[in-house]
Amino acid sequence: MNRDHLEGGLRHLRGRAKTAAGAVRGNPGNQLDGAYDQAAGAAQYVYGEAREAVRDLRHGGEHLVEEGRSRFRDVSARGRDLADEAVERGQHYRDRAVHHGRHLAARADANRGTTLALVAAVAFAVGWLARPTR
User: Fold this and answer.
1) pLDDT at residue 23 in the model
2) By CB atoms within 10 Å of each CB, which of 35, 69, 105, 120 scores lowest?
3) What's the pTM value of the predicted model, to 2 decimals?
4) What is the chain's alpha carbon radius of gyration, rounded to the nearest angstrom?
């Protein structure tokens, strides 16, 4: 669990509380603030998840590189060629993992606006329907 993971979850929960308090009080401003915090917290949480996935994939790639080096270290010239190939593959997989992790993080950041707009629209609709009538 990383900082973004934890802070995103907490911000999401605070946003839910603000949205609920705004609905109870009939204050659409608090509802919108809560919806914004909810969406931002969810996006930050997903970003934290992506960071964890990248870290795990990178660690696995580095582990493969080290394992390949240790297995083929004392082998003949052919074995050394195979070791170099294994190292290159491990580095390739690590680079792919980093690339995919960055792509996941970018998607999480790119979807913040859509998520925020959707949550804000739902919060506004709920606030509108829950408002006191005269």
Assistant:
1) 87
2) 69
3) 0.46
4) 24
